[in-house]
Automatic annotation (TrEMBL), chains A, B:
GO biological process: negative regulation of DNA-templated transcription
Top-level taxon of the source organism: Bacteria
A GO MF label: DNA-binding transcription factor activity
Key words, A-Z: DNA-binding, Transcription, Transcription regulation
Residue span, HTH tetR-type domain: 12-72
Protein name: HTH tetR-type domain-containing protein
DNA-binding region: 35-54
Pfam families linked to this entry: TetR_C_1, TetR_N
Amino acid sequence: MRVVTPEANRPRLSRDLIVAAARSVADSTGLDSLTLREVARELGTGQASLYRHIADRRELLGLLADDLALGFPLADPALPPRERLPALWQSLHGYLSRHRWAARVIVDGEHTSRNAVPFVDSLLDCSAAVGMGPALAMRTYQAVYNLLLGYLLNEHPMGHDREGGQRPLPGWHVAGGQDAFCWAMRCLLDGVLEGRGDL
Amino acid sequence: MRVVTPEANRPRLSRDLIVAAARSVADSTGLDSLTLREVARELGTGQASLYRHIADRRELLGLLADDLALGFPLADPALPPRERLPALWQSLHGYLSRHRWAARVIVDGEHTSRNAVPFVDSLLDCSAAVGMGPALAMRTYQAVYNLLLGYLLNEHPMGHDREGGQRPLPGWHVAGGQDAFCWAMRCLLDGVLEGRGDL
DNA sequence: ACCTGAACACCGTTCAAGT
DNA sequence: ACCTGAACACCGTTCAAGT
């Protein structure tokens, strides 16, 4: 939908407005269609004007990742300690899978956004509550994070399909979505906790 | 002696030649630089000529993924059964991390290549050898595969870096590469095997 | 019949010219 | 001083014209 405002009181261009427009474009037509021309059109301005507020498309995607990280969940203290960690990861999975561009934008970015710090802190607290040391907690965080990204990317595949709609391989259908990730995530956490903690 | 090809010594264009050239371009300058123009230049032909053998760039990436899958490892029967599964995954990780474009080309593709069938069969054999049923083996395969993709994508990040070379976040450095993946993979497999096998 | 230069419709980015 | 239309250098893809 087009943010159409009378030219007189159209708000001044800003990074926030650009990011919001980019988000709207990505939500509705996907990350590949997120072009600076489209963002400019959504804002009713010229494409060159965007460069007054952002360095380039790379930075815009970074800002999008930052914006996304603002909504990362926190642990629920009402839950028993053992359940907090898996529940938090499940919550993050639910949040990220609501935006098909989320995993892509995260994977394309080199670093974790600073806005993710509260989430990670919350995660480390949960890890400490079940007896993990800081190093083990970080390693586990990285492991589940990578697992999550893998599942998200396979949930929203976008790529070179083979000819026709042929099924991948006979008998290869596996349950996807929330359930599959949660099962794998719990197995991974179990494996970490049952392990002799060699770290 | 008579030269069979009436043309110059340049061999006829074919899908295989195109894929080989694409692979060489991706290996040396990365997946983003893998343009049809560059592949054509590498082959000394016009870009339009490629379309005689491939449908479009999407298909070329698919062929690249197929070519990659041809080199997937198989289980080592000399190993004790318990070790075959982790060793096979470690071997796949080593193979894929040798090409920085590998994870990207796999993630962009919608389906697993048919050329990966021997690898997956080998994997399922290993799973059966440690007492996993077919459904559990498939679920586990999917889980470790997604974990692997996550690690590979973070090993070869290419994206919107934040301003300057600032470290991600203080104290956030975690060991990457082979070790980190292997640790996580073994934890995941342990978690699956120690689990009460609710599948 | 087979191939391909040149064109087309995009893209990110820049800059001289507008206000 | 601020903004932006138009241009530039790319990209994937197509097609009429070459051989």
